[in-house]
Amino acid sequence: xxxxxxxxxxxxxxxxxxxxxxxxxxxxxxxxxxxxxxxxxxxxxxxxxxxxxxxxxxxxxxxxxxxxxxxxxxxxxxxxxxxxxxxxxxxxxxxxxxxxxxxxxxxxxxxxxxxxxxxxxxxxxxxxxxxxxxxxxxxxxxxxxxxxxxxxxxxxxxxxxxxxxxxxxxxxxxxxxxxx
Length: 180
Prior knowledge:
By secondary structure, the chain is mainly alpha-helical. It has helices at about 1-10, 25-35, 40-50, 55-65, 70-80, 100-120, 130, 150-155. The longest helix has 25 residues, at about 100-120.
């Protein structure tokens, strides 16, 4: 609690910008501020979390989801969609409800399935997508909502508009019937 009080006083002091890079300290301060109804401190914590998103998406996802910061949680989940998260651990996992972690796992699985579906469709002759795919048994029955940038970034590995060869497996791509 001593460090939380120090962080709180530093954030409140208007003369200097104070940065917290430790997600545990940021968690403690945001929980303290929320508990004591201090919206300006909660907002300062949210801004600090945004700055940590690129380097620490997993703990920031837990902080954002628990704090109700939906946009920040979604950005963190999208960043994590490109990583293997099944074996990732962060101590903040122990402070959030299981439903928060389950939601992240579900988003991650749905993202992988959507990416696999797009790659299979865009590069049907490519076998490499199978190495990135999850079990496809749910694809026909589960509607998938995924961010277009996530799919586009993953798809860029396999093909580009200007390429006639799949960059994933190096096979020739079928020619479009609209080309002359």
